[in-house]
TrEMBL record, chain A:
The lineage of its organism: Bacteria, Bacillati, Actinomycetota, Actinomycetes, Micromonosporales. PANTHER family: ALDEHYDE OXIDASE 1-RELATED, XANTHINE DEHYDROGENASE. The keyword Oxidoreductase applies. It holds the Pfam family MoCoBD_1. It comes from Asanoa siamensis. Keywords: Molybdenum, Oxidoreductase. The keyword Magnesium does not apply. This is Carbon-monoxide dehydrogenase large subunit.
From TrEMBL, chain B:
Residues 2-179 form the FAD-binding PCMH-type domain. It comes from the Bacteria. Coiled coil: none annotated. It comes from Asanoa siamensis. Pfam families: CO_deh_flav_C (PF03450), FAD_binding_5 (PF00941). SMART domains: CO_deh_flav_C. This is Carbon monoxide dehydrogenase medium subunit. Keywords: FAD, Flavoprotein, Oxidoreductase.
């Protein structure tokens, strides 16, 4: 037997990511790398107008361009019954516009040509006669009685209203507010932003005219859900559709939905009988794919004079764009926004959300938002600071006073969430110690004396991830449970097949580590197969930080099934009763006689051999499972941000960022830290520079990376990370998700820090992004409406 | 992927060849240097030249940085990175290093050129303000011969210069005079972003008196990227905070910024004053040898 020291890496802990071997060498295989014999290229014509009637489309010049194979318009699709497709929120969305265009960048026609250049040249030759219509560019304006009706395609739609949804006890909240000593209200905007993965969306469709089988390589975070939706929409038999999501260059929720371009590549392949590739460019991606947020909130917080928070309520106008295409569990049109009571012990809470149509792109649930928990956490963490401002209280002390206590878990919130586990004060205490909180406050006081602006911002968040229990959660009727299949080959190597799909999160490593931890197999010996519907079990895919909470649990449980089966095989090998065996991390041995044992590798070979197995035990060593989570998991964290603000220019420099995360048991701490790093950068970006603003004509003002700003290493400090570990009591390995924690928690910390810095100017709130201009305007007492074109 | 409309491509082997090609190919042909401004515009199909004349092989002729008599000469094909790395540039005019540090990002700086920056005539170009502050002269050559144009007279409007379609920018000549200091101040939303506003200043002192001064402003709608009224007012004044602020106020008044996602008009005007003050302050300190 090999000694422990010589054994290759097994189980949990830091280890290099398996996928990086190909990714760092440029040997990844993305959709745009797929090249098939005879492949044609598609390109979309998009609307330059945000709202306009289409009078006519003339495709003759485009069709006449040499190399063009076909030009498809909405009229062509109408004949096939494909002009509209269902969205994930039971609305419909135009595949190619027929009657009108409803946002700038909407898909109008599709050209298929011999090469990409010709397709793009032909797009310019299509002549569309548009009749511009008045534009709804502001969610608040959408509900005014004279606002133009965007969705006149829907029979009963007379306005731009989509839904009203509420959670919590309105009457009880009213009572708490009526009797409270202090009530503070604030209008808070979470502007429209975009996940902006570096890889844009695309697909290659190959409809085999002989077998009738469609193979679709596509940028999908949820290949199985996509396959089922294609089967339902296009009427293709599900077993004749194979969806392959190869390497994905970032998803962040933007690759959950189905876009017209994917559908058009399929239509193109059916029409031409050849494979068709469609890959959008950066501007198309930023203008038309799933945006995030756009929540216009009015928050109110009630408290006692000495800072005991009593209640919280919020009214939201949610801008869903021109089609309601948000991706979230069906029962929750505002996603998980109603977790907005955050990490505090409240007497009452109520939220009311109204969804509206505007002349902007559809989407809304993306950018690592945990189904709108970004908005929820931002609201509560801003409101707590607004309260601190009014009470002249220290924001850390105020939080400490109101945080849930460890003995309150499991805790049911005023809006019905059951938080599984946590020690909140411990996390905040640790963050404050790491930051040197008291010292920072002393430094700030000295600086203020000298007229210098420095701010310290705190955010405490509770996440709710791992959707979810089937009885509460489905998307388009598909329950949110995920399968896993594990097969141990005769030589003891393993292949794990999972339904979730990495977009950079490192599933191929983490999931191998989970199997390794359960069976004592080296990480390197476990192949993780994912992203191909012909190769993997059904499941709803990766978003909402659900991979580890759901599929991670499935993986642990399927490995335990193998372990149980291995025990029976081992008992036959050792000729003892299974009850006499004991598991020792990587082998079964006879209780009290460790020498007498068999490793999982030895057992695997025996399971495939001629060894006589007990009655009822099948040979080989494989298992399948489906995991239906009993509850969500609730990661949490305490973040502290330190900024310096240039008084003369309003420019903000993030000096330090301390992030204490508790995501339960950490499978690979390096990957966890990577996820946190990325999310913190997201937070700096949203807080300080990112926004998709629109002008009065509905023009998108952020359609390139020169206009839609992503933070760089120079805007990010060297992150200071800390951890506490409170295992999830209901998850097989005690893990909680971490993919979105930092994106959820960090924007509020940065904004709170900036507002703390400019507190001497009497500023209580200003909206993101806090660009130098926005900070300066706030200091002048004239905050800017950041989501509209700057006047 | 964004792709440009069709065009033809020629590679010049000498300055003469480039000018000849431009003459042959006509007014719809364009020079391509670093390509970092032109090619993105072509991909967005905002620019549609029929032909490109690539001058990247002309480094020996066009990419030199040297002192020639009483002038610092920077070749039009010198890359941003070359300017940033040049000790002789830093020794005479630290304003270049201030500015180059905050122009774009290393990838763009490795290829983008000084000549391309000036010929692009983007109203937010940083180097336009730098060369204007230093009152540099651009050397141009076309079929008709060589001519010299003050950078302050090079730009006729946004994205428009006095260059004829067949003219090539060869180099920039910056007069070296004793007793000077220079500095550049920029506010950007993020590193690599074009400026929200930026100001450059060059100051020549006689003791504590401002003998001469050059002020360059970009992204704030300053005519020809300069502030002549402010310069005029500051000449002969004591080099003090008060006179810097007074000049900066004048500079800001003569700007004509437009509102966009980088900020509203009043903010940009405020920055014009704030950054001009800061640049003058630092330039004067350097003239006194007080700061490296
Ligand atoms: C991401 C990004 C960020 C940027 N940020 C900044 C910034 O912060 N500040 C800033 O000032 N700039 C910025 N730039 C612009 C950058 O400085 C460019 O490199 C520069 O504007 C153009 O130089 P080029 O050599 O690439 O020119 P090209 O793109 O090759 O040419 C630009 C124009 O100049 C003409 N031209 C070029 N050379 C000559 C010549 N010798 N004679 C005659 N005509 C010529 C071309 O025909 C063309 O019309 C940025 C660019 C990018 C891509």
């Amino acid at each position: 037997m090999t000694t422990v020291e010589e054994r290759p890496h097994t189980g949990f802990g830091r280890t290099l990511r398996k996928e990086d071997v190909r990714l760092v060498r440029g040997k990844g295989n993305y959709v745009d790398d797929v090249r098939l014999p005879g492949m044609l290229h598609g390109a979309l014509l998009r609307s330059p107008y945000a709202h306009a009637k289409i009078n006519s489309i003339d495709t003759s010049a485009a069709e006449a361009l040499p190399g063009v194979k076909a030009v498809v318009t909405g009229e062509t699709l109408k004949g096939l019954g494909l002009a509209w497709m269902p969205t994930l929120s039971y609305d419909v969305q135009a595949v190619l516009a027929t009657d009108k265009v409803r946002y700038q960048g909407q898909e109008v026609a599709f050209v298929i040509a011999e090469d990409h250049y010709t397709a793009r040249d032909a797009v310019e030759l299509i002549e569309v006669d548009y009749e511009p219509l008045p534009v709804v560019f502001d969610a608040k304006r959408a509900l005014e009685p004279d606002a133009p009706v965007i969705r006149d395609d829907k029979e009963d739609q007379r306005d731009n209203h989509i839904f009203d949804w509420e959670s919590g006890d309105a009457a009880r909240t009213e009572e708490v507010f009526a009797n409270a000593e202090v009530v503070v209200a604030e209008d808070i905007l979470y502007p429209r932003v975009h996940p902006a993965p570096l890889e844009t969306c695309g697909s290659v469709a190959d409809m085999d005219p002989v077998t009738g089988k469609l193979t679709l390589w596509t940028t999908s975070q949820a290949p199985h859900a996509h396959r089922t939706v294609y089967a339902l929409v296009a009427g293709l038999p599900e077993h004749k559709i194979r969806v392959i999501a190869p390497d994905i260059g970032g998803g962040f929720g933007g690759k959950v939905g189905i876009y017209p371009g994917y559908v058009m590549s399929i239509v193109g392949s059916i029409v031409t009988g050849r494979p068709v590739k469609w890959v959008e460019d950066r501007a198309e991606h930023l203008m038309s794919t799933a945006f995030a947020r756009d929540y216009h909130m009015r928050g109110e917080i009630a408290a006692t004079k000495d800072g005991k928070i009593l209640g919280l309520r919020v009214k939201v106008i949610a801008d869903h764009g021109a089609f309601n295409a948000t991706a979230q569990p069906t029962k929750f049109p505002a996603g998980f926004f109603h977790v907005f009571t955050g990490s505090y012990d409240l007497r009452a809470a109520h939220c009311a959300v109204t969804g509206v149509y505007t002349n902007k792109a559809p989407g809304g649930v993306a950018y690592a938002c945990s189904f709108r928990i970004t908005e929820a956490v931002y609201l509560v963490e801003r409101m707590v600071d607004v309260l601190a401002y009014e009470l002249k209280a220290d924001p850390a002390e105020l939080r400490m006073k109101n945080l849930l206590k460890p003995d309150q878990f499991p805790y049911t919130t005023q809006t019905g969430w059951e938080y599984d586990s946590g020690d909140y004060p411990k996390a905040l205490q640790l963050a404050m110690e790491m930051a040197g909180y008291d010292e920072l406050r002393r430094e700030q006081a000295e600086k203020r004396e000298r007229g210098e602006l420095m701010g310290v911002g705190i955010a405490f968040f509770t996440e709710a991830v791992g959707a979810g229990p089937r009885k509460h959660m489905d998307i388009l009727g598909l329950g949110m449970a995920d399968g896993a299949e594990l097969r141990i080959h005769p030589t003891g190597k393993a292949v794990l097949r999972i339904s979730v799909k990495t977009q950079g999160q490192g599933h191929e490593t983490t999931f191998a580590q989970i199997v390794g931890n359960e069976l004592g197999l080296p990480t390197a010996d476990i192949e993780v197969v994912h992203g191909d519907t012909d190769q993997t079990p059904f499941g709803l895919g990766t978003y909402g930080s659900r991979s580890t909470p759901v599929s991670g649990a499935a993986t642990a449980l399927v490995a335990r099934k193998i372990r149980d089966k291995a025990k029976i095989v081992a008992s036959a090998m050792l000729e003892v009763s299974p009850d006499d065996l004991e598991w020792a991390g990587n082998r079964w041995h006879v209780k009290g006689d460790p020498e007498q044992g068999k490793t999982i590798q030895e057992i695997a070979l025996a399971a495939h051999s001629s060894l006589e197995l007990p009655e009822g035990v099948e040979g080989h060593l494989d298992a399948t499972t489906v995991y239906n989570p009993p509850n969500l998991t609730y990661p949490f964290g305490a973040y502290i941000c330190v900024v310096d603000v240039d008084k003369g220019t309003g420019a903000v420099k993030v000096r330090r960022f301390i992030a204490v995360d508790d995501c339960g048991v950490r499978i690979n701490p390096m990957i966890v830290e990577g996820q946190v790093h990325g999310g913190l950068a997201d937070g700096v970006g949203m807080a300080l520079m990112q926004v998709m603003a629109f002008d009065e004509e509905g023009n998108h003002l952020g359609a390139s990376f020169m206009d839609y700003l992503l933070p760089t290493s120079l805007e990010c400090p060297s992150w200071e990370l800390g951890e506490t570990v409170t295992p999830s009591p209901h998850h097989p390995i005690g893990a909680k998700g971490v993919g979105e924690s930092a994106t959820v928690g960090s924007p509020a910390a940065v904004v709170n820090a900036v507002l703390d810095a400019i507190r001497p100017y009497g500023v209580r709130h200003a909206d993101m992004p806090l660009t130098p201009a926005a900070v300066w305007a706030a200091m002048q007492g004239r905050p800017i409406r950041t989501d509209l074109a700057i006047p | 992927m964004q792709v440009p409309a069709p065009f033809t491509y020629e590679r010049a082997t000498s300055v003469e060849h480039a000018i000849e090609l431009l003459g042959q190919l006509g007014p719809e042909a364009r020079v391509v240097a670093g390509g970092h401004s032109l090619i993105p515009m072509m991909k967005l199909r905002l620019a549609r030249p029929d032909a490109l004349v690539d001058i990247n092989d002309l480094g020996a002729e066009l990419a030199q940085i040297r002192v020639d008599g009483d002038a610092l000469v920077i070749g039009a094909l010198a890359r941003h990175a070359d300017v940033l790395a040049s000790a002789v540039v830093g020794e005479h005019f630290p304003i270049f290093h201030d500015a180059e540090r905050v122009i774009a990002d290393p990838v763009v700086r490795n290829f983008g050129t000084v000549g391309g920056s000036l010929c692009q005539a983007d109203p937010a170009e940083d180097l336009a303000a730098v060369f204007a502050a230093l009152d540099a002269v651009a050397v141009l050559r076309g079929a008709a011969g060589v001519r010299e144009v003050r950078v302050r007279e090079l730009h006729v409007g946004p994205y428009e210069t006095v260059l004829a379609p067949d003219e090539l920018m060869l180099e920039l000549r910056v007069p070296i005079r004793p007793g000077g200091g220079s500095a550049y101040e920029k506010v950007e939303r993020r590193v690599g972003d074009y400026p929200v506003a930026a100001a450059g200043a060059a100051v020549w002192l006689d003791g504590d008196t401002v003998r001469d001064v050059g002020i360059g402003l970009t992204a704030v709608g300053a005519e020809h990227f300069t502030a002549p009224a402010a310069e005029e007012a500051l000449r002969g004044q004591p080099a003090t905070e008060e006179s810097f602020q007074a000049a900066a106020r004048l500079a800001a008044e003569h700007c004509n910024p437009s509102a966009d996602q980088r900020g509203p008009v009043d903010y940009k005007r405020h920055l014009a004053a704030e950054l001009t003050t800061r640049a003058l302050r630092r330039a004067a300190a350097r003239a006194r040898g007080q700061e490296a």
